[in-house]
Amino acid sequence: MSPELEKCPRSLLVCEKSNFLNEKSRHDFHVSKHNFNYKISVLMPECGMLPANISTVINSFSHYYLVRALPVHELLEETFLESLVKKGHFYALSYNTKIDEDNSIALLSSGQLILSLDKDTYEQLGLEGRPSLYNHRKAMRFVVTLDLTDKSLSPGTKRYQRVLSSLKDRLPLRYDFFFTKYNTGADEDKTLNKLLSQYAYEEHKPAVSHQTLKEIPCPTLYPSDIQGKTLSCDPHHFLEWLGAVNLDINCENAADSFLSTYVCPEPQSSVSQALLCTVTGFISPENVFALLKELRQYFDEPRFTPWVSLTVHGFMDSPVSWGATEHRFLKGGENFYNFVCFKNQDYWLHMATGAQDGCPP
């Protein structure tokens, strides 16, 4: 192996097998903890057209907003805090901020505000934080975590006033932000619209694309063999194959191909067609869970395929991956999970992140 390849950091892959009907299944927990999602891919072997009920769910995904030059302190203003943040189902993420170079801000649905800051910004703000887990010999980056639902940060308290003053007067940080919300009421919508009216913003709907793949080799998967020891291919090879399919890479290693020598892992079979549906945008965990629920019901009717796949990619430059676990880009920014849903309601869950990130829950 070349020295350059040896320097590449390994990724961390956690695999879990369970059944959706098992009362101890944690599939909903894992989905809810992955706050910031930018891409969803659904692969359905032996399917040529997206089923109407799945299409309906995808088309009902929440719109999202790109707000320009928003002062960070607006996220702490009393009306916004009480009407939106503390009620949950609201997400905000700084846009076009590189996590290894720039300051990056994230607001989780739990009400935690995460500020990943360089040393100069951290010292100027004067807020209490901790050194980043990704510092080397000297601490050059810091993480400030503010639980906006905590009583000590209620409007009117000394701590609230100090934090607000730091972000509003001492160092008024401004960034472009992605916003999205899920199933909010009239009061919450009114509060958000009032804020949006004060700044330049764009409203977007998640983009959807479909592709029907013909005569492709497909790995053989058995619910009981997630490790690929006897009947199935191993998880790394399966995910590699999924990536190749998403990138439209030929998996047959044809003799006349000079572009790719990749071949579908064994054991395999040929499927006459497969549907690949991709959704991109700023997608909430609630939308992901609604889609996962509909995919489970896909097998309520007889199907030729024994499984379907759902892959969810997180933002590579998000300051967190699962929950409030710190995330870095380093060389790849890996930050995704994949469900393989079987006919009998068994599922495999693959969770992948960078080698130095915290282990997925």
Describe it:
One of its GO terms (cellular component) is multimeric ribonuclease P complex. InterPro entries: RNase_P_Rpp40. This protein has 361 residues and is α+β, with helices and mostly antiparallel strands. The chain is 23% helix and 32% strand. It has nine helices and 15 strands. The protein has helices spanning 3-7, 27-33, 52-59, 78-83, 119-125, 158-170, 186-196, 235-246, 285-297, and strands spanning 11-19, 37-45, 64-71, 90-94, 104-107, 112-118, 130-131, 141-147, 174-181, 201-204, 207-219, 268-283, 307-314, 335-342, 346-354. The strands form two sheets. An eight-stranded antiparallel β-sheet has the order 7-8-6-5-4-9-3-10. Strands 1-15-14-13-2-12-11 form a seven-stranded antiparallel β-sheet, with helices on both faces. A hairpin with a 3-residue loop joins strand 14 (335-342) and strand 15. Helix 3 (52-59) packs antiparallel against helix 9 (285-297). The longest helix is centred in the middle third of the chain and has 13 residues, at 158-170. The radius of gyration is 22 Å and the shape is globular. The model has no long low-confidence stretch (mean pLDDT 89).
Summarize the entry for a quick read:
The chain is an alpha+beta fold and 361 residues long. It is built from 9 helices and 15 strands. Helix content is 23%, strand content 32%.
Write the layout of secondary structure elements.
Layout: H1 3-7, E1 11-19, H2 27-33, E2 37-45, H3 52-59, E3 64-71, H4 78-83, E4 90-94, E5 104-107, E6 112-118, H5 119-125, E7 130-131, E8 141-147, H6 158-170, E9 174-181, H7 186-196, E10 201-204, E11 207-219, H8 235-246, E12 268-283, H9 285-297, E13 307-314, E14 335-342, E15 346-354
Antiparallel strand pairs: 1-15, 2-12, 2-13, 3-9, 3-10, 4-5, 4-9, 5-6, 6-8, 7-8, 11-12, 13-14, 14-15
